[in-house]
Each structure stands twice: as structure tokens, then as C-alpha cells.
Amino acid sequence: MPSTNETHAALCERLKACDVRPTPQREVVLKVILEKRDHPTADEIFARVKAQMPTISLATVYNCLETLVGCGIVRQVNLERAPTRYCPHLHEHAHFHDEETGRIHDVDLPEELMARLREVLPPGFQASSIELNFRGSTQGHHALSPSNGRGNAAAN
Amino acid sequence: MPSTNETHAALCERLKACDVRPTPQREVVLKVILEKRDHPTADEIFARVKAQMPTISLATVYNCLETLVGCGIVRQVNLERAPTRYCPHLHEHAHFHDEETGRIHDVDLPEELMARLREVLPPGFQASSIELNFRGSTQGHHALSPSNGRGNAAAN
DNA sequence: AGTCGATTTAGAATTATTCTAATTATCACT
DNA sequence: AGTGATAATTAGAATAATTCTAAATCGACT
User: What is the mean pLDDT of chain A?
Assistant: First the structure.
């Protein structure tokens, strides 16, 4: 079962809720991001989208991604010098970059800890977003269940 | 006064301590990074280094940076799609990206909080490094004193 | 002096991303 | 339903950061 399988109408609603025109291209880009719980690059998204909409252009994928990131529907993850990746998960979470497998795991942190991060800035500093990335290895835990329970979630 | 002003000998020692051959190029790249408390890009570093060593090539700057990052003498900061920046500060700290000015501020966080971050990962996840980036604005605090006291430090 | 491996160099190549200008679709309003 | 203003899409070129390549150079050690 795909983790998310929103209908055309639901996707439209979601876009309109953000004051974004629900074009077919935006819809399919969003759909593709949501239906697999990974962190694809723009190129990967382009490839997946093309299977469903062969006429779409890479520039449009970039445009759509910019729009979706801008309105907070997807998050953007930048690790080192690698190409930007996009994350479908809306809830506040961190990323763990496995250096051995190259995979990216979502990591849920205790709410209270995220809250503290938001508060520790010196006076005058107003954070609109926080990015927390870990790098390292996952000994023996390379094949995690795709459940979204406490602690962690999908790879790459 | 420059924040750091290490001698030739001191720079050499620092490189040798990391099992890195102290070549003149590596030395001058490191020197340039240390003598200004900002977060220059590879290009900016190239420009500064060229003033002192006009024959150096950009590829060498990239090579040196890779070496210095690899042995932990400088840190690498990646924010969104912007070019990689390099940070001379060795102690564990976060970065604050001011969206209005484009500047990057170092942010010292309470030791205890950094320690907690290191501990909250699910079992099996071993983090070798942590990257914590804030984005937002600094109302009225655009000109901070360069002191490295509690809370924050140099811009860009 | 001679060799070996690591480093530097210039320039070409690659790659992610953005830009441009023309076309096409969408929405609000008749 | 039709129309016009506005916004989005498209293909391809352009840009810019980074990496690669192959040759030259350096330094340590016989």
C-alpha cells in the first residue's frame, strides 16, 4: 500500500488551500512526492512524473517544487554538495544521512526538544525554520520497517 | 585586530597534527579562513588567497578545502541551493541564516542541549556529526559586536 | 642523483539549477 | 459559454558550482 494516495480532488484542495493554482503539473509533482516516502531529487521527480505526464519539462518540475516548498507543502533538504532533495513529510522532524548507504532517514524528535531548539536563540533572532541534519551510520538497521512510528522512517 | 593570526609554524603544526602535509597552498587557504570570522564560499576564498599567492588555482583551493574539511579543521555549511560556505570555528555550534541580509551568524547553544541532540537518535543510529541551521531574521541586531561571547558571533 | 607517491595546475567537463521568450492554460467576470 | 488579464508551462540556452583529467612539480627516501 502506498503511504499516501490522495485523489485528484484532495490534491487540488490542498493546493488551493495554499492559494496555489491547482495545475495538472503541480498536482502530479505533488502526487509523485507523496506516494513514495523517500527524498527524491528534482531529477528523480522529473523521471517519475514523466511516466505519467510525458510532456512535462524539467523547468516545470523546478517551478512546481519551488512553489510547493514556498507554500510549505514539501520541505527541501540540502546535504553537503549533493543535489537538493525533497521531503514529503510535513511534521517537524530531523534528517539522518547514512554515510554508508547514502540513504536519508526521517527522524522524529521529542516535541519538547524541538520546542527548546526554537527557544534557545539569542534575543532578536527570530527563526522561521529549523533544519537539523545528522550524519553517520546505522549499524545493522539498514532495512527499517516503513512504519512511521516513534523514532524514524523512510529511507532516501 | 584579526581574530586569529597564527604564524607559519603554528599553521604547519596544525596541519601536521592532522596527518596532512603542510603545503604552502594548504597553509594559505587555512590562514585566509582563520583570519576573518566569516563564512566565505570557495570562490571568495580563492579571491583572498590569490592576493597572497597569485599562482594558485581554483582546483587547488577546492582540493585544500576538501582536505581541511576532511580532517576537521574547518566546517562546511550548506544552506539551500546556495554555494557551499566554510566555517573556521571549531567548537560545536549552530548557524543562523538571516534571510534579510543574507548573512550567516554562528550561534552557540548550551552545551547541555547539544549533548541532548547527540543522544536522541533511535537505537542503532550513530551520528558522527550534527548540523543545525536556523533561518529567519534578526530584528535590529544587524550589527553585532564581534565578541565571541554567549549567544552569537560573526556574520557571513 | 633517482624514484615513488602525493600535490598542484590549467583547462575541459559535468551537473544542478535558473533564465528567456514564446506559447498555453486558468480564473474571474460577463 | 466567451473573453481578457494574469499566471504557468515549455524547450532550449545560459549560468555557476564543482569535479575531472592529464601533465608538471614537489618532497621524502633510497
Answer: 84
CA distance A114 to A132: 10
Q: Which residue has the higher pLDDT, A153 or A11?
A: A11
Alpha-carbon gap, residue B26 to B58, rounded angstroms:
12
- Range list of β-strands (E), chain B: 75-77, 85-87, 94-98, 104-107, 125-138
Q: How far apart are CA A30 and CA A28, in angstroms?
A: 5
The shortest C-alpha distance from B81 to chain A (Å) reads 7
Q: What is the pLDDT of residues A18-66, one digit of tens each?
A: 889 999 999 999 999 999 989 999 999 999 999 999 999 999 999 999 9
Please give, chain by chain, protein residues whose CB is below 7 Å from any atom of strand C.
Answer: A 21-24, 41-43, 58-59, 62, 66, 83-84; B 20-21, 23-26, 53, 55-60, 63-64, 67, 81
If one compares B145 and B123, the residue with the highest pLDDT of the two is B123
Instruction: Give the one of B79, B105, B120 whose C-beta lies nearest to A109's C-beta.
Output: B120
Count Cβ neighbours within 10 Å for each residue of A4-22 and write b for 16 or more, e otherwise: eebeeeebbebbeeeebeb
